[in-house]
Amino acid sequence: MNLRLSLFIALNLLGSAPLFAHHGGAAYDNQKIVTLKGTITNFEWTSLHSQIHLDVTDDKGNAVHWNFECQPPSILVHAGWTKNSLKPGDQVTIMARPTRNGAPIGIVSKVILANGQELTPTEK
Amino acid sequence: MKIRLRTWAIILSAQCAFSGALLAQSGKGASVATSAAAVPDLSGVWLRDPGKVSAFEFPRNPAPMTAWGATKFRTARNTHGPNPVLDMASNTDPFLKACEPLGVPRVLLANHPFKIIPANGEMIMLYERSHDFREIYMDGREHPKDIEPSWWGHSIGKWESDTLVVDTVGLDDRTWLDYQGLPHSDQLHVIERYRRADHETLQVEIVIDDPKTYTKSWSVSYTYKLKPWDIGEEICTLSSEKNFDQGIVNPASDPGLK
Q1: Helices (DSSP H) in chain B: which residue ranges?
Q2: Which of residues 61-80 of A touch B (CB under 8 A)?
Q3: Between A74, A101, A104, which is nearest B258 by CB?
Q4: Beta strand pairing status for B132-137 and B154-160?
Q5: What is the pLDDT of residues B109-140, one digit of tens each?
Q6: Were both Cys, which of A102, B196, B203, B224 would link to B258 (CB 3.0–4.6 Å)?
Q7: Integer CA distances (angstroms), B33 to B157, B158, B256, in order
Q8: Burial class of residue B99, CB neighbours in 10 A (0-12, 13-18, 19+)
Q9: B28 CA: distance to closest CA in chain A (Å)
Q10: Contacts (Cβ under 8 Å, ≥6 apart) of B252
């Protein structure tokens, strides 16, 4: 599959949401989306960026701790989030753009809760 | 007869007093409305509709830069722009790194709403990001001579038909025009034109006039939509930035991981 097609598919997966990575910008790999299933360990509901902490078990059974940048509460409230949307112990799937350096860091595109509900950081 | 004359005198002097009052109201400070219908109502909470444009950046190369401007632009390092740094720790953005004020016009690029409040002799703008405000003086005053630069400058406004025209000078050159780091000097002169196209829509034109930095003036036009929201609290603080550095910036900027 050539790069252009991959990029086209990736961009369409994200829908038409504009790039909100104002802090991260080019530091995030905008041509890649990672999908990670894990357990919330902390949800920092803070300005200027929220942070979502997720424990993920990889294919080899190793625990990897991911940390995600997310929009601040003043934006998330208009997209239906509250500070209790994610609680330690919640089993979720997070789709995110990872950083370029391979660290377990990314910026959230979408969170899918155990009950199937989807949370996105942008106002619908 | 005498009574009639006195009565006429009373009536005439009352009319003169009333007319005089009307004339006085429409004299200096004509920008201040004498009735609610006289000037458009821009009040409300407005959020920029990004549409197809970048949420945080003016266009690439909006106008040719002077040598001074080009040199200054090269010192700006951010994860946005034509030559972005690829790690957040290297960025030199005064707002993101040091919580310095966004200033004018950069505050208008935020993906957070702002509120317009008409008040006596001025318009007040409240910006959610970063909990800042501007006063646009509408009482007919001029800019001070020999103005000292400040983060938010000095803004005066007037109505031109249905458009609020805001003129701002005296802007500290430590701010960036946008998230790419487009430069400006303390000679920057910003003109904003606000027009309520319909109840839900505010059209805003921003004109950048800075001959020390750009060889010609340039402008952009943005659309803002009315929102049924209150302004939230969104403040850049040393503690918020330190927390973000520890959690995201430093691990994401570590070159030793790949």
Answers
A1: 2-25, 67-74, 94-98, 238-244, 250-253
A2: 67, 69, 72-75, 77-78
A3: A101
A4: parallel
A5: 999 999 999 999 999 999 999 899 999 999 99
A6: A102
A7: 13, 11, 63
A8: middle
A9: 41
A10: A24, A27, A99, A101, A103, A105, B87, B88, B89
Q: Is B252 exposed, middle or buried (0-12, 13-18, 19+ CB in 10 A)?
A: buried
Q: Does the beta-carbon distance from B229 to A23 stay under 8 Å?
A: no
- Size of chain A, expressed as the number of residues it contains: 124
User: Which amino acid type is present at position B51?
Assistant: G
Q: B10 pLDDT band (50/70/90 cuts)?
A: low
**Chain B residues touching chain A at CB-CB below 8 Å:** 50, 54-56, 78-80, 84-88, 96, 111-112, 128-130, 179, 229, 232-237, 240-241, 243-244, 247-249, 251-255, 257-258
Predicted ipTM > 0.85: no
- For tokens 């701002």, what's the residue? B168
Using alpha carbons, select from A70, A81, A20 the residue that is nearest to residue A47: A70
- Point out which residues pair with A106 in neighbouring strands: A68, A98
Bridge partners (DSSP) of residue B135 are: B124
Specify the CATH number of the domain A3-119: 2.40.50.140
State the first-to-last Cα distance of chain B, in angstroms, to the nearest integer: 107
Q: What is the value of pTM for the model shown?
A: 0.83
Amino acid at A11: L
CB-CB neighbors (< 8 A) of B249 in chain A: 23
Give the nearest partner residue to A101 out of B79, B241, B257, using CB atoms.
B257
B198, β-bridge pairs: B201
Is B168 in a helix, a strand, or coil?
A: strand
Q: Which residues pair with A112 in a beta bridge?
A: A93, A118
Q: pLDDT tens digits for A72-112?
A: 999 999 999 999 999 999 999 999 999 999 999 999 999 99
Q: For residue B82, which phi and psi values (nearest 5 degrees)?
A: -70, -25
Residue B30 has pLDDT above 60, yes or no: no
Which amino acid, one-letter code, is at B183? P
Q: Which of B79, B95, B115, B238 to mutate to test the interface with A (most CBs of A within 10 A)?
A: B79
